[in-house]
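Notes, p. 3: input format for complexes.
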Amino acid sequence: MKPGFEAVIGLEIHVQLLTRSKMFCACRNQSGGAPNSHTCPICLGLPGALPALNEEAVRMALALGLAIGARIQPKSIFYRKQYFYPDLPKGYQITQGPVAVVEEGHVSIPGDPEVRGNADPVRIRIERAHLEEDAGKSNHELSTHASYVDLNRAGVPLLEIVGGPDLRSASEAWDYLKTLHRLVTFLGICDGNMEEGSFRCDANVSVRRAGEADFGTRVEVKNLNSFRYVKLAIEHEISRHIALLEQGQAFSQETRGWDAEKGETKPQRSKEAAMDYRFFPEPDLPALIILEEEISRVKKFLPELPQARQDRFTKDYGLTEYEAGMLLQSLAFGDYFEAVAKGSNGKQAANWMLGEVSRALNDTGKEIGALGLREAHLAELIQLVESGTINLNTAKEAVFPALMRDEGRPVQIIESQGLAQVSDRGAIETLVRGVIQAHPEQLARLKAGNEKLKGFFVGQVMKAGNGKVNPQLVNEILEAVLDE
Ligand code: ADP
Ligand code: MG
Ligand code: ZN
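Output follows (484 residues plus zinc ion):
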């Protein structure tokens, strides 16, 4: 951040809820499929069709509310937000009004030392989270100059999470977004797929001179569908605002879009051109009343929350905060790690997950569930290294790749390929003596005090033993022979 300026950022996140059916009708909530195949008179907005609220969507909103320590509103109502667009069949969107079902929660993120001077946790308020429905999709076919409307997404439940203006840099916005992404995916209320738009975000950005009490003029950058774009768009806006402020140029509140190709934002509409949505209470839906019993029930079924799990990982498995965070990069990755850790050793399981397994995921571009590596096999491999049956090198170079090809259990692979580690003292001693005899010059240098050559001798012995000898024993026996 340029000295003398402070950025203020607030994110609005749209979360597509993983309910079985849509928000106000029984149509399947599922992307894909033939256009307009998941539609009915209600989500098509045919005259006379009446909406009925999806209870599962409400429970998901409550789950999020409880997870962020929010106030659950005992009574909230739905409104109609009117605007015209071809993918909005009713001519209005049903959304919540001034009172949302979830109000005043918060999450914690590490502060950005660059703007705050330290990384102490900062509390980011969540002003509200309200339920609403998604619109359909317009597909524009450039070759024929035709546009097609697909209403499969019309009426899909959304939870809009409105964050407070508490973020101070693009990197804090990134951390906040990650925190919420992890939360909704761990709660199982959203698949978190940003590319497909099931988790998308608008970024509100303003800049003020350091020390000023009032916020600067804000712009809202709409529909950012990747973490990177969120970060880039915010950085771009911050520099643009600073340049304008420095030139003493006035500018007004507006909505902007992100041009990924150019890497910049561009104006969409000004505040003067802002639409009047003519909000009014939805007459076809009763008020949403939340009873205490319902809140207790959702609470009872709440899974372990990501931060609690991260803390438990550090305690139970002796991991650093960073390692635990990396292991919880997704729910599936965290579950996989725990299965391996339970069958072996937490620290070693973490090393394998963040080492070989992560490398395999990068190389193949797959998710952990599709890797074809069984938890039980990895656990067994770790145990075989621990017990000294094979050494770590053989485990990584020979057994792990064979497990990836699903060639059977580690014990079978070791047996059939003759990979077992040589721990026979006599055999190792013979190798050590042979290597020493073959390298008189290096031996002389070692005896003259060049300790680094010990590594050379260990390496030579390992090589002579086809990499299968026990390295600890090699070290031990080499010392003994040299001391003679
Ligand atoms: P709107 O309904 O026009 O989107 P809201 O008052 O609901 O406006 O604010 C939406 C978002 O804008 C919130 O996430 C809030 O934190 C953020 N916000 C409000 N004022 C500012 C500001 N001056 N700078 C940056 N973000 C802001
Ligand atoms: Mg907004
Ligand atoms: Zn429908």
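Residues 306-417 form one domain.
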